[in-house]
Amino acid sequence: MFPTDSKIQYQLAIPNPEYHEFTIEMTVPAHSSESVMLTLPAWIPGSYMIRDFAKSIVTFDVQSLDGNNTVAWHKADKQTWAIESHGNAFTVLYTVYANDLSIRSAFINHEYAFINGTSAFLQIEGSDETPCELTVIKPNTLNPLIETSLPMSIDSDSLWQFTSTNYDDLIDHPLFVGESLSQSFWVDGIEFVLLFSGTTPVDIERVTKDLIPICEHHLSLFGKPYPVTRYVFMTLLSESGYGGLEHMSSTALLYPRYDLPLMGESDEKSDGYITFLSLCSHELFHTWHVKRIKPAIMVTPDLSQETYTNQLWIYEGFYELLR
Ligand SMILES: [Zn+2]
To answer: Which residues surround ligand 1, an ion (CB under 5 A)?
Structure first.
């Protein structure tokens, strides 16, 4: 469909965090087909329910690459757009509403933006193996700091740039931009990044100290070669709520801020804190078990519709057996 040296480009911007919105400018190179089908996943791997992420796309427009002409398109179904491109390169401009504090989709407030690729990046049907390039414009009104397990290739005054081998890789590294508390620690040569959203004074040294034996255990259990060189615990702090979602080299967590140890508190481990460490352990375990050890149907799953398996019990239940 595309020449071998082609890439799909996505430019993400957060011009107005107060609107809980981000924008994407997607550039599709010249191709051999008359039309192009663009689709957004209906579910995110690791959370096995139809979520209909496309409902959050609130504006959509297609232009020729030079911006001088509108390109015809129509909606083919709830999550698919058919572009009448006639083989020419084109640009898609769309806006996504991001106000779901669940770690499954995307959330933007006055402090930070958290974005899963499954909520952000349209997929081109039939070009699953084309490399992707992501540019994130540094925001004016959020703290211009970014964290993701996607390898960064450019960090300039105005933008960050990342590359990925294909679409499935692009969508398996959630992005965090804005205010956070974070630090790195190393276990047997692997860099682990611990991040908490916002400005809550979490005792990050203490959490780091308690996470190290968990990381050591999992690395030792599965052995070398390790599947990651850098791993991010990306924690969104909330008033209430609980969740964790595994990714290739990171996890996104949602946790109540006052169940974590704060600076100046006693060393006693509350039930809430023990549960947080357990959640971190569970999600890190998925780096092997589920992200890399999985049934064939889940290696490149069909994200456009339900993908059935009778093995979910061992994805999540196996953990219960270990407790
Ligand atoms: Zn799990």
So the answer is: 316
